[in-house]
Write a structure and sequence with these properties.
This is SseB family protein. The chain has a domain at 42-137: Trna Endonuclease, Chain: A, domain 1. The chain has four helices and six strands. It has helices at residues 10-23, 28-39, 74-83, 102-108; strands at residues 43-47, 59-62, 65-70, 95-99, 115-120, 128-130.
Length: 145
């Protein structure tokens, strides 16, 4: 870790991995590295469009179907909410923090509600994966990778 923590920040790592994906369109290895890093986050942050008692994650309508927006940090989620016009620039959005691997199970269960996939740090990154791929992101907590 650096002294200011900048280069090891999860969002910065995802930005770098996304740049690798964009530099090699169609290649699967950079995408695997990106989504492995997304799955290695301690938690996924989501924008809550429901109530506290009945949370409903913010999703985008896409050609492939509804994409739940997951974020690597509360700051990215707040900025996305402002950009999308969900809240004013001076207002806070209600966020949901879901630890991994529970986040995978919860989001996979949303397929029955019309969710087709997830997108990460949209609109900064915006990479997406089909909901069915989430099961492949489950990581063994005893592994040392």
């Amino acid at each position: 870790m650096t002294t200011n923590g900048q280069s090891d920040e999860p969002s910065a790592v995802l930005d770098r991995l996304n740049a690798e994906c964009l530099a090699a369109p169609g290649e699967i290895e950079p995408q695997i590295r990106l989504w492995t890093a997304v799955a290695a986050l301690d938690q996924w942050i989501l924008i809550n469009r429901g109530s506290t008692d009945s949370p409903r994650p913010y999703a985008l309508a896409a050609e492939a179907g509804n994409m739940v927006c997951i974020f690597s940090s509360p700051e990215r989620a707040q900025a996305a909410a402002v950009t999308a016009g969900l809240v004013a620039a001076d207002a806070s959005v209600e966020l949901i923090a879901v630890s991994l691997p529970g986040a995978l199970d919860w989001l996979m269960s949303l397929g029955e509600h019309g969710v087709a996939g997830v997108t990460v740090d949209h609109p900064v990154i915006g990479a997406w994966t089909p909901l069915a791929n989430l099961s492949m992101l489950r990581q063994d907590p005893t592994s040392s990778s």
